[in-house]
Structure formats: structure tokens, C-alpha cells
Amino acid sequence: MSVIKNIIFDLGGVLIDWNPEYVYLEVFEGDRKKMQWFFDEICTMEWNENQDAGYPIQRATEERVKIFPQYEQWIRMYYGRWEEMLGDSISETVVILNKLLKTTDYRVAALTNWSAETFPVALERFEFLHRFEGIVVSGTEKTRKPFHEIYQLTLDRFGFKAEESLFIDDNLRNIEAASEIGIHTIHFNSPADLEYNLKAKAIRI
Asked: In sequence order, which residues have a C-beta less than 8 Å from that of residue 32 and are 6 or more positions away?
């Protein structure tokens, strides 16, 4: 059994709370059914992930407005009010991160699906992001999870071996992709669950 030497964190949903509902629940006056329709049909997760992979936000917005001109105001809010979708840090996970950073037993990096255009906002808001050895941002790399390319790029950039690395993500799709190239994984459900699973893998925290 390989000894884990490197730990790679996802950010959104693991260390940082991001949710477009913070804007659109207000826009749709609490109508969750209407809000979900908007996310399913207009500003979809697939559309958002395209920007996470490096597609320019302004171009993406104008293209969407052209397709759905009747919803222009709502579409422009997606990135126009993006900072309001960015919640607080998930403090209990940050505590775990800090424990890992205090020991010399592990190298700690991050891999995130995030637009390169909006990521500077997070860097300014969350001091703990500057404590990582490095962060691979999908929008900068022009690819994203769950494509194998970005996992290999992360390993190569930091000189990590897959069998000595552990990846933490709240998206099962991303976890499964990391496992496919030999990286150990933990599917994040809660900070308490993460701490339990780290200890189960003999990670010292």
C-alpha cells in the first residue's frame, strides 16, 4: 500500500461556499421551481462549466442573450452579480486544511474548476488560498475536471505521483475520474465526514 504524501483539495463546495441560489432565489422571489427551470434551461451548469474551462465570460453572456433575448436581464445577472453567489469559507474544512499545513508530513495543493476571470475575487477574499503550495485553476489551463488531462497536469506541475496523492472533491464525477488514473480519493460530504475519512486513511491531522 502506497503512503500518501500529497493532498489535493477541490475548493468550491469543500472549502468555499458558492451557490447561484444566493442571487436567483431573490430574483425569483423564493420560487424554487422557476429558479430551477432557469438553471436547467437558460444558465445551465454545462454553460457555466464552459467558462470554468476558459471560455470568455463576456462572449458566453452575449451568446446566451442572443439565444434567449427575453431573459437578458436574468442572464446578465449570472456574472454581473457573481460576487454575491460567493458565500463564506466552510470554516470547519479550513480548520482541517490548517492542521494539514502545519505538519511537514504532506504537500498540500488545490485543483479547482473555476473561471480564471472570477478566481481573483476568491484570492482576495480568502486568505487561506495563499497557503497552498499552488492552485491549478481550470479556467487558466483551458480544461477542467473530470477530464483526465487536468489531473495529470496537476500531478506533473507539483511533481506528485498518483499513487502517493489523495484528492478531495464534493463532486462524485470528479472523484471517479481521479480514481481512474490511480489517485486516492475522498468524496467530500461534510467536514466531519472528511476528518473521519482522512483518519481512516492514516492521515495525521
From this structure: 25
Domain end marker among 39, 56, 86: 86
pLDDT in tens, 29-50: 999 999 999 999 999 999 999 9
182 occurs within a structural domain: yes
Rounded Cα distance, 196 and 205, in Å: 10
The alpha carbon of 174 is separated from its chain's Cα centroid by a whole number of angstroms, namely: 10
Tell me the per-residue pLDDT of 93-102, one tens digit each, with 9 for 90 and over: 999 999 999 9
CA 58 remoteness from chain centre: 21
Question: How is residue 199 written as a grid cell?
Answer: 483518519
Alpha-carbon gap, residue 109 to 193, rounded angstroms: 20
Same domain flag for 97 and 82: no
As a whole number of angstroms, the distance between CA 133 and CA 129 comes to: 9
Q: Are residues 115 and 127 in the same domain?
A: yes
